TrEMBL record:
Family that this chain belongs to: Belongs to the Nudix hydrolase family.
Lineage, opening ranks: Bacteria, Bacillati, Actinomycetota, Actinomycetes, Mycobacteriales
Region annotation (Disordered) ranges: 200-231
Protein name from the UniProt record: NUDIX hydrolase
Annotated ranges, domain Nudix hydrolase: 18-151
UniProt feature, compositional bias: Polar residues: 200-212
SUPFAM superfamilies hit by this protein: Nudix, Winged helix' DNA-binding domain
Bilayer-spanning residue ranges: none
A single MF term (Gene Ontology): hydrolase activity
Length: 255
C-alpha cells in the first residue's frame, strides 16, 4: 500500500505529547448612553462561582474556534455574534485555570447595541458593565488581563481601521462617534475640532467623505439643549484612512 504524505505514521503515539484543553473568551464592546460598556457574565459554577467574567467556554472537538465563540456567546448571553469576530491573542500560562492546562483564544467584537440579554448554561447572569467599572472588578481567571489587552487593541484600531463606525448604527450624531474615541483613548476632544476632522476629506481623495448628512435630526435635544442634533451616516473615506490619530503623549508609553 502506498503511503500518502499526509498519512499518520504507524508509530505515532499521541500519549507522548502533553494534553491541554482549548477555550474561547469573547470581549464584546458597545456604547450605551454614550459610555463604553463591556458584556460580562456572572459565573454560576466553580471555579470562580459568583465572579464576573468574559463570556466563553470550552471548544468542542467537532467545531472550529469561531464556531465555539459564537455558540458560547449565544448560550451564555443570548447574543448573536456580529458577522466579524476578530481573534486578537492567545493565553496559555500554565496556572491560568486550576482545573487543567487550558489555552484560551480571545476574540474582540464591537456591536452598536445589545438588547435582551439572557443568561444560560453555566452563566448565572449576563450584564453590560461600564468599562471603567468592569476594570475595577476582580474578574475570573485572567480576564482582567484579557479585557485590558482588548481595550488596547481597540484603541489602536481606531487609528488604523474603521472600527469606530462599528459602534454606531446606520444613523448617528457626531457626538455618538466622538464618545467612542473619548472612551477608548481616555481623552477629551473638542467638538468643533472633531467635527472638522470628520467633515474634511482625506488629502488623497477630495471627493470622499467620512460622514454624510442624512438631512434629518434626532428626536432628543442636544447636550446643551436647543434643536436635536443632526444625523449622519458613514461615508466612504474610511476605506482610505481613518480621520483621527492620537498625539504621541496620548498613547500608552508616549512622551
Amino acid at each position: 500500500m502506498v503511503k500518502r504524505a499526509h498519512d499518520v505514521p504507524d508509530d505515532y503515539d499521541p500519549s507522548r505529547f502533553p494534553r491541554f484543553a482549548v477555550t474561547v473568551d469573547i470581549v464584546i464592546l458597545t456604547m450605551r448612553e454614550q459610555s463604553l460598556h463591556v458584556l460580562l457574565v456572572q459565573r454560576g459554577v466553580e471555579p470562580f462561582a459568583g465572579f464576573w467574567a468574559l463570556p466563553g467556554g470550552f471548544k468542542r472537538p467537532d467545531e472550529t474556534l469561531d464556531e465555539a465563540a459564537r455558540r458560547e456567546l449565544r448560550e451564555e448571553t443570548g447574543v448573536t455574534a456580529p458577522g466579524h469576530l476578530a481573534q486578537f491573542r492567545a493565553y496559555g500560562d500554565p496556572g491560568r485555570d486550576e482545573r487543567t492546562n487550558v489555552v484560551t483564544v480571545a476574540y474582540l467584537a464591537v456591536m452598536p447595541r445589545l438588547d435582551k440579554l439572557q443568561s444560560g448554561t453555566d452563566a448565572a447572569a449576563a450584564q453590560l458593565w461600564p468599562v471603567d467599572d468592569a476594570r475595577r472588578l476582580k474578574l475570573a481567571f485572567d480576564h482582567n488581563d484579557i479585557l485590558s489587552d482588548a481595550l488596547s487593541r481597540a484603541a489602536n484600531e481606531l487609528e488604523q481601521t474603521d472600527l469606530a463606525t462599528k459602534f454606531v448604527g446606520d444613523t448617528f450624531t457626531l457626538t455618538d462617534l466622538q464618545k467612542v474615541y473619548e472612551g477608548l483613548w481616555h481623552v477629551k476632544i473638542d467638538p468643533a475640532n472633531f467635527r472638522r476632522s470628520l467633515t474634511t476629506s482625506p488629502a488623497t481623495a477630495t471627493s470622499e467623505s467620512y460622514v454624510e448628512s442624512t438631512g434629518r435630526r434626532g428626536t432628543a435635544a442636544g447636550d446643551r439643549g436647543g434643536r436635536p442634533p443632526e444625523l449622519f451616516r458613514v461615508g466612504s473615506a474610511w476605506r482610505i484612512q481613518p480621520p483621527l490619530r492620537r498625539r504621541p503623549k496620548e498613547r500608552p508609553g508616549g512622551n
